[in-house]
Recover the amino acids of this structure.
């Protein structure tokens, strides 16, 4: 895809978002958010995928801003999973939480230095569990994602991120699946699943 095609598709995306968020954000604000999203995603992403990923990430960020500002009613708890690359542990935790909660918990994931793609072995072990990561992609950590969350779970990565009052911060010490054999990644997946089940038992009992 040429740069001109990419720019045209992103402009069309901004028009769509401006219509969706009319009354909440100006087109200029949306354009700035999209530009920032483009800059943060562009280095590690295949060019043909950039417009759709910029659209999805920008939309997610705008919704998070509305949630954080109380402009969108939250009827369920929100969990943010954070690791360095958002390519393994945090992605597994997010998809497991979504599946095991039956949609009763909102989930986001992010990385302080996101990779260009999700670890293929992680995709494989989640497919074994009947969970598809094909539509997911590594995303950078943003302030609005932290602000919108009720619980922030870091994955033993020592990430620095904004700390806001009224939120619960949890650190899960987990091995990194990067470069690990299939059986090791399966063990990490099962460890994460156990922790997710325990977290959900707390959140859904409240």
């Amino acid at each position: 895809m040429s740069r001109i095609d990419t720019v045209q598709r992103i402009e069309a995306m901004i028009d769509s978002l401006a219509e969706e968020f009319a009354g909440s954000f100006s087109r200029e604000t949306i354009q700035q958010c999209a530009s920032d999203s483009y800059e943060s995603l562009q280095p590690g992403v295949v060019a043909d995928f950039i417009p759709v990923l910029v659209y999805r990430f920008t939309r997610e960020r705008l919704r998070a801003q509305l949630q954080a500002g109380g402009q969108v009613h939250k009827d369920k708890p929100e969990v943010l999973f954070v690791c360095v690359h958002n390519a393994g542990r945090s992605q597994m935790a997010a998809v497991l939480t979504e599946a095991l909660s039956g949609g009763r918990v909102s989930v986001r994931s992010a990385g302080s230095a996101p990779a260009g793609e999700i670890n293929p072995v992680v995709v494989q072990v989640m497919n074994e569990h009947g969970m598809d990561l094909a539509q997911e992609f590594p995303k950078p950590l943003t302030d609005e994602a932290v602000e919108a969350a009720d619980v922030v779970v870091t994955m033993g990565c020592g990430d620095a991120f904004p700390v806001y009052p009224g939120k619960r911060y949890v650190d899960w010490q987990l091995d990194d699946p990067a470069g690990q054999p299939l059986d090791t990644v399966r063990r990490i997946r099962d460890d994460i699943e156990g922790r997710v089940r325990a977290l959900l038992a707390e959140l859904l009992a409240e």
Remarks:
- The CA atoms of residues 38 and 54 lie 6 Å apart.
- The longest strand covers residues 78-83.
- The mean pLDDT is 89.
- The first helix runs from residue 3 to 20.
